[in-house]
Amino acid sequence: MAKLTKNRKLALQKIEANKIYKLTEAASVLKDISSTKFDSSVDLDVRLGVDPRKANQMVRGIVTLPHGTGKQVRVLVLCTPDKEDEAKAAGAEFVGLDDYIEKIKGGWTDVDVIITMPSVMAKIGALGRVLGPRGLMPNPKSGTVTLEVGKAVNEVKMGKIDFKVDKFGIVHSSVGKVSFTPDQLAANAKEFINMILKLKPSAAKGTYIKSVYLSSTMSPGLKIDNKSVEA
């Protein structure tokens, strides 16, 4: 196990055992204890009272964080030539079609999001073997298969994220960076949790949001008071 540095020990001493934090308070503590040399991501883990193995209890959705994710999102738009200028103007890093399809077939996936058009999906279906395991396959439900490619690029760049509950009943997502203010982190986390609340399956019984934890890269998770995020 790596030896704790003096700074790291001091940081960890600021965490109170078994304490339940209000959301903004937890965000402030994370800023204090994050001792990495890079701008760490701040992650939210929400444990839900659902059984994801049952189709009628699946929780999946899209949310646009008011302050963005703080990450640079690299976007590939696979489109017909008449849509290329629109995609480029919106800020897509990679725009094209057949050349990129060949690159992906060869294993290239150096992007974060792929946006395409309905008319092109037939060509992209063959890429499922490469894109599926990496979570890059465009999907109409997540807004990445659309005729409005420019709008889709803008939304992704502004902080739109696609999420779903995992097999353990947990929704996990980044909600910003340690460099954000505590208020920005709290606003992003609230927006995310409000969307989860809206998506509560009617088949889910009992307590829906069981626990909420906020953490940064390399930090322990801080337990959040559910009332402070559901308000």
Walkthrough of the structure:
The protein has helices at 6-13, 23-33, 84-89, 98-105, 121-124, 128-131, 149-158, 182-198, 226-230; strands at 41-48, 60-64, 75-78, 94-96, 113-116, 160-164, 170-177, 209-216, 222-223. The strands form 3 sheets. It has a 4-stranded antiparallel β-sheet with strand order 7-1-8-9, with helices on one face. The longest helix has 17 residues, at 182-198. The N and C termini lie far apart (40 Å). The chain has 231 residues and is of the alpha/beta class.
Topology:
Layout lengths: L5 H8 L9 H11 L7 E8 L11 E5 L10 E4 L5 H6 L4 E3 L1 H8 L7 E4 L4 H4 L3 H4 L17 H10 L1 E5 L5 E8 L4 H17 L10 E8 L5 E2 L2 H5 L1
Parallel strand pairs: 3-4, 3-5
Antiparallel strand pairs: 1-7, 1-8, 2-6, 8-9
Helix pairs in contact: 2-8
Entry summary:
32% of the residues lie in helices and 20% in strands.
Feature tags:
single chain, 231 residues, alpha/beta, 4-stranded antiparallel β-sheet, 3-stranded parallel β-sheet, 9 strands, 32% helix, 20% strand, globular
Taken from the alpha-carbon principal axes, the silhouette is globular
Instruction: Round the mean pLDDT to the nearest integer and report it.
Output: 88
- Give the class from helix and strand content and strand pairing: alpha/beta
Strand runs, count: 9
Q: Could you list the spans in which at least 5 consecutive residues all have pLDDT below 50? A: none
Main β-sheet, spatial strand arrangement: 7-1-8-9
Strand residues, percent: 15-25%
- The H/E string reads HHEEEHEHEHHHEEHEEH
Helix fraction, binned, reads 25-40%
Give Rg in angstroms: 20 Å
Helical segment tally?
A: 9
